[in-house]
Amino acid sequence: MVSSSPVPHGIPVPASYGDPQRNGLTANDLFDGMAEHLFYTLGTRAEGASVHDLYMALSHAVRDRLMTRHLATKDQLRAGSAKVVAYFSAEFLIGPQLGNNLLMLGMQAEAAEALRRFGGPGLDQVLDVEEEPGLGNGGLGRLAACYLESLASLEFPASGYGIRYEFGIFDQAIRDGWQVEITDKWLKGGWPWELVYPAQSVSVGFGGHVESYGDEQGAERRRWLPAHRALGVPHDVPVLGYRVNSCDRIRLWRAVAAESFDVHAFNEGDFQRAVQEKVASETLSKVLYPNDGTDQGKRLRLEQQHFFVSCSLQDMLRTLALRGAPVQSFAEHWTVQLNDTHPSIAVAELMRLLVDEHRLGWDEAWTITTASIAYTNHTLLPEALERWEVGLFGSLLPRHLEIIYEINARFLQQVRLHAPGDLDLLRRVSIIHEDGTKAVRMAHLATVAAHHVNGVAALHSQLVKTDLFPDFAALWPGKFTNVTNGVTPRRWLALANPPLARLLGETLGDDWPAHIERLRQLEPLATDSGFQQRWAACKLACKRRLAGVIAEQSQVLVDPTSLFDIQVKRIHEYKRQHLNALQVVLQYLRIKHGETEGMVPRTVIFGGKAAPGYWMAKLIIRFISGIAETINADPDNRGLLRVAFLADYNVKLGERVYPAADLSEQISTAGLEASGTGNMKFALNGALTIGTLDGANVEIRQQVGTDNFFLFGHTTEQIAELRSDYRPWEWVEKVPLLREALDLIERGHFSNGDGELFRPLVQNIVGRDSYFLLADLPDYLVSQNDASRLWADPSAWQRASILNTARSGYFSSDRAIREYAERVWGVEPLPVAMGCEVS
Fold it and tell me: Higher pLDDT residue, 157 or 16?
C-alpha cells in the first residue's frame, strides 16, 4: 500500500506555494506526475513507454518539485540584499542528476514504488539510462559540482557560472589497447534538467579596435568597437540542497550568432557565407577544451573564457539593477570565486564594464573589483598556468589588453615603492611576461586583483607561497590562505554506496549525510567483530557490482574477494600510473619465479583519460592494456593477480568504483599534486590509501592515522635535493627483478612481440625519469607488501577500513564551503521560506 504522507526527512512544500500535486512527495504524487508527463510532455502512453520514456517522465516529475524551491529561492534573493557567491568555472562535472535529486528530496523509495506501478523496469535500470553531462573533465569540474551542492545544502545563496558545452571532451574507448576518442554527444537524447531564458541573453564582443572620445563632462574616455559579436543564452541547472528548500543554480551559457543567417549572401548563391557567422559564434560553446596545439585552438580557448566571463558579469550587473542597487554596491551583493586561471579574464572585463560602460573612475572601479574577486590556484605545474601571447590577446580583446597594461603599470609602481631599484623583482611579478615573446600571465593578473588567493591543500598552499608566488606572498602576506578541498558525502557515500549508506543510517541515524561529523561515532565499533562483518559485507556487495561492470566492459572476470587495488584519475606522468604498472610487472615476475610468499590475491584496476595530444599518456594506457592482456591470459598466476582498465572513466563509473576499493593508489610525485579529491572519496568509502606525502594525502594521513595509511616515497624537500643530481639508471640495480622487468618490456613480452612499442617509455624512465619513479620504487614495493600483510589479517584490515571512513568527515565539501564563507567570501546562509506565491 502506498503511503499518502511525505517521506521521512522530505521537505514538503506548503499548498499555498505552487501546485500541491506537483509538489507532493508521495509515490502516488510521483506516479501521477509521471503519467501526466508521459502523455502531455512526451506524447506517449504508459503501456508503450520505453525505459528512456520512463526516465524522462520521472525526471520531469522530479524537476517539477525542484521548480517551486528554485523560484522561491530566486524570489527571496530578489526581495533582499543578501550577498551571493558567483562561482566561475570552465567546468562543472555534475554527473547524472536524477538519482542525486531523488536523494536530495528524500524520494528514492517513492520513485521505486511509482515505477513498480508502471510494471516496467526498476529504478536502477531507469537511472542507468541517463547520459552523463559533458560539462567537465576532471577534478576541477567535480570540485565545482561538489561546492555548488554544499552551498545549496548549507543554504548559502550561490550561482555557478560556466559554458553549456554541446559536446564533452570525448568518450573514451580502448581498441587494440589504445585510447580512441569518440565524440561525446551527451545531449542526443534530450536533457530535462535545464531551464532556458532567451530573454536574458547578453551580447559579447570580440576583435575590432578601441577609440578615444570625450564624454558629456569633457573627460577623455575609451570605447571598444568589436568587429563581431555573439549572444550568450543562459541555461540554468537547478542545484537543490539536501533536505532543505534552498535551490541554487548553475547558469551555463550557450553561444548563438547575433545575426545567424545572411539572406543577401544566400540570394547571391554564397551559401557558405550565409551561415558563416552562425557557425563561428556557435563554436564558442561547441566543445569542452578544444585542442590548443594550434593558433586557432588557442584563440578559441581564449574566446571561450572571455565569452562565459563576460556573459556572467553582465548577468550579475543585471540582477543588481533588478534589486534596485547602484553599481557601486556590486561587492556588497556579489563575491566572485575564480576556479583556477580559466576565468581570470574577469579582472579586466569587470574593470571594462565598470569604467567604460558604467562610467566609474579607475580607482573606484579597481576598489570594487579587488573587493569582489578571489582566486583559487589548482596547480604548481608551469604548463597549467595560462599565458596568452600579447599579439593574440590584443587582436581578440584590444580594450582588455589596454586595461591589463594599466593595471600592471600601477601595480609595478607600488612594487617600486616597496623595493626601490629591484628590477629583477619587477620582472618576476609583472603581469606581462617580457622574456622572449611577450605574454599575459593570467595567474599573476588574478593574484594582483584578488583579495584572497588560496591553495587547495595545506601542503599545496604552502608551496604556492614559497615556490609559485613567493614575491607576491612577501608583498601581501595576508592575502594568501588555504582551503583544503572537500567532496560531498551525499553523492559519494549516500548515493554511490547504498549498502554502506543503509548501515550508517542504522548506526548513526537517517540524517547522517547532513551531519557528517557523526562518522566519528563509528570509531568505538572499529574493533567490534559483529560490526566488522556487516562492514565487510557492504564492501563485498560493492565489489561484486564493480566486478560485473568489468566483466561487461572488458570480458575480464575478477574475484570480488581479492584485494581491489584501484587507481582512477586523469592519465599524466606526474600522477605516475606507470609506477603502478611497473610494480604490477614486478609482482608478475615474482609469481613466474615462484616467489609468492606473502602475496595475496589482488585485482589491480586502472581508469582515466589521456589528453588527445598527450602521446606519452596514451602510451601509458597502451602499456597498462598490454600488461592486462598478458597477465590475465597467463595460467601461472593461479588467481593471485588480475589487471583491468576501465574505459571512459567518469562520475557515473566513479559511483561504482569508489565504494568497491580496498586500496587507493595516490602515488603522484611529492609536491606536484595540488590536492586531489579522488583520494578523499576513496577514504570516505573505507579504502586504505597507499600514497606519497603529496597534496591532501598529507592531511588524510593525519586524520585517519598513520597506522591506517601506507606511506612511501621521497618528500617534497627530498625531491628538490634529488633533482640537481639525479641519475635514474643507478637505481635500477637497487630493486630485485627490475632489470629483468625492463628487459621483458623492451623485448615485447607485453606488446605481442613488438620490441619497439614501449622502448620510449622505458628510455623515459631509465634515462630521464622526470617524476622520480625509480627513486620511489623500492619504498613503494615495501608499502605494497605491507598492504598485502594487513589484508591477510581480515579483522585488522576491517578495523583500518572503518577508521578511514570514521575519520574522513573533515574532507566534506560542507567544511570547505564553511571556511570559504567565513574567511574569504563573507556570506551568510539564507534559509528559504516557502510561504509566498510564485511570481
Answer: 157
Q: Is 681 a catalytic residue?
A: yes
- Give per-residue burial for 23-52: e unless 16+ CB within 10 Å, then b: bbbbbbbbbbbbbbbbeeebebebeebeee
378 is catalytic: yes
Question: Which one of 306, 590, 681, 714 is the catalytic residue?
Answer: 681
On the question of pLDDT at 207 being above 90, the answer is yes
d(C-alpha 752, C-alpha 629), whole Å = 10
Is a pLDDT exceeding 60 seen at residue 263? Answer: no
CATH among 3.10.450.50, 3.40.50.2000, 3.40.50.261, 2.60.40.640 for 496-811: 3.40.50.2000
> For residues 82 and 159, what is the distance between their CA atoms, to the nearest angstrom?
13
Element (H, E) at 482: strand 480-482
CA distance 662 to 804: 11
Is the sign of the CA dihedral 824, 828, 834, 839 positive or negative?
negative
Query: Rounded CA gap, 230 and 300, in Å?
Result: 13
Q: Residue 266's pLDDT band (boundaries 50, 70, 90)?
A: low
Question: For residue 774, what are the contacts with CB-CB under 8 A and spacing of at least 6?
Answer: 728, 731, 732, 735, 738, 765, 766
pLDDT of residue 20 exceeding 80, the answer is: no
CA–CA separation, 7 vs 26, rounded Å? 7
pLDDT for the residue numbered 381: 83
Question: Percent of the chain, pLDDT > 70?
Answer: 95
Please, what's the largest Cα pairwise distance for the chain?
A: 90
Q: What is the pLDDT of residue 709?
A: 98
DSSP H or E run through 400: helix 398-418
DSSP alpha helices (H): ranges in 598-737? 615-633, 651-657, 678-684, 697-704, 716-723
The percentage of the chain sitting over the pLDDT mark of 90, rounded to a whole number, equals 87
Instruction: Name residues whose C-beta falls within 8 Å of residue 689's C-beta, 6 or more positions apart in sequence.
Output: 663, 664, 666, 679, 682, 683, 697, 700, 701, 704, 709, 710, 804
Quickly state the pLDDT bin for 17 (edges 50, 70, 90).
low
Q: Is 86 helix (H, G, I), strand (E, B) or coil?
A: strand
Selecting among 376, 379, 488, 677, the annotated active-site residue is 677
The whole-number average pLDDT for the span 208-228 is 91
CA distance 808 to 742: 39
**Quick one: which of 287, 677, 731 has its CA closest to 457?**
677
Q: Is the pLDDT of residue 271 over 50?
A: no
142-485 and 496-811 in the same fold: yes
pLDDT band of 7, cuts 50, 70, 90: very low
Catalytic residue among 69, 452, 460, 569: 569
Eight-state DSSP code of residue 349: H
* Domain residue ranges in the chain: 20-80+97-129, 142-485, 496-811
> Which is the catalytic residue, given 243, 249, 306, 378?
378
- State yes or no: is 570 an active-site residue: yes
Quote the CA–CA distance of 129 and 54 in Å, as a whole number.
10
Q: Tell me if the pTM is above 0.90.
A: yes
* CATH 3.40.50.2000, applies to 142-485: yes
Question: Of 21-25, 119-123, 418-422, 537-541, which one has max mean pLDDT?
Answer: 537-541
Question: Phi/psi of residue 46, each to 5°?
Answer: -60, -40
Beta strands in 130-246 (DSSP E): 158-163, 171-175, 178-182, 195-196, 202-206, 209-214, 220-225, 228-240
- Give the active site residue among 358, 570, 592, 652: 570
What DSSP element (H or E) covers 54? Answer: helix 51-79
Give the residue with greater pLDDT, 76 vs 689: 689
575 catalytic per annotation: yes
Strand boundaries in 109-170, DSSP class E = 158-163
